[in-house]
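Subject: sequence -> structure tokens, single chain

Hey, anyone have a minute? Need the predicted structure for the following. Not urgent.
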Amino acid sequence: MPEGTFCNKTPVQTEEQLKSLLSDTRGTQYYEEMKSLEVDKDALWSRIQKTCKSKMRTWLDICAHCGLCADSCFLYLVNDRDPKQVPSYKIQSMLRTLIEKKGDVSTEFMMECMETAWSKCTCCSRCSQFCPHGIDMGQMNSYIRGLLFSQGFVPWELKIGSGMHRVYHAQMDVTTVDWVETCEWMAEEYEEEWPGLTIPVDKEGADIMYTCNAREPKHYPEDLAEAAILFHLAGENWTVPSEGWEQTSLTMFAGDWEGATMQVKNVYSAIERLKPNRVIGTECGHAHRATVIEGPYWAGREDGKPPRPYMHYVEWVAEALRTGKLKIDPAKRIKVPCTLQDSCNYVRNYGLAQTTREILSYMVEPGYFTEMTPCKEYNYCCGGGGGFNGVGRYREQRNIALQTKRDQILATGAQLVIAPCHNCWDAIRDLEEEYSIGIKWSFLKPLLISMVEVPEHLKPEE
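Reply:
Had a minute. Here:
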């Protein structure tokens, strides 16, 4: 198929290619052309041989087909316990077939795999908590996504998202100029209310370098301002980089591993250039996974760590409250029934469940917080992770998937859901729009600002 068409095997590299894809409105022609996209069987088999190594093959072979992973999957539960939604079945039906057939598969098979890999699994890895052999089927599904991406079988929105990262180093078309101007704008907008507020750009040797989600400067610039206000109140010496500020990775969701490597190296380059003591990432689960958990290995770092200590935002908030850098006014603590959404990527995959609960012990009046059932590392995915939120082709399946989280929230009686993760925040917003259960939802930042004690010298003059 000619490379100039909408659907092809080549990753997006230029603004012109992005504009072309975006002109296809909802990807209608893209998916139509995909039906004629020929599988490069030799290249597919060669890629499998080079990349499907001992761990992945061992996991595939030791699966006992016991079915203990079935009830762990929220997509299995909301789809009337369809056997084809059992995590082990999904992996075996895709990867086992690809290996047994040595890549000699049809376009139709690859399209079926695309549907499974992106609409029947969010890579949340909850199933790994219940597998007697410890098989991480979320990681296996991520691997399969990479194989599919290499052959051009990837949802339209994620093809675009991957291209955004390659062209703009961000999941959205936010240029360096856009970013720096937004920082200046937000500092000016809030300076009167918060005297002395600045958003320092490219300050070398700061204690903290802050990175964020591109959706913030693009759609929620007040989130950037709120981060600045809290650093200001805490007396932090901080900065943002002009380049390398975008922490997220739709390339990871897309299975574009080359693009994911480019993205994380861009962030690491900013760290090495500005030499902060540490880096704080925003309230985003997959951003943390991409830059802190997976990123060091993509970047070829032998120690498996970023260039500087890299904390999730909840770690910084807990530290600031614990050390007294931020103090909560007891009279302003949350006094409505509330619950907490555990993000798969920094709770299940990074162990920060207790950190978020430490924060809530400062913020919530005793008796007003109720845990979801199950919770912490056993909590269900919000229903929007792994790129599921953003793919219009799978919107109906995604809305059905939200029922599990809806029922969890309803069981708590909560009126407020605290969600320190962009995808979780988005999914719960969409859940309320779809099912109207009468809840509010929030990141940590605005809640903290509403209740933090402001030192006298930082208050505006009367």
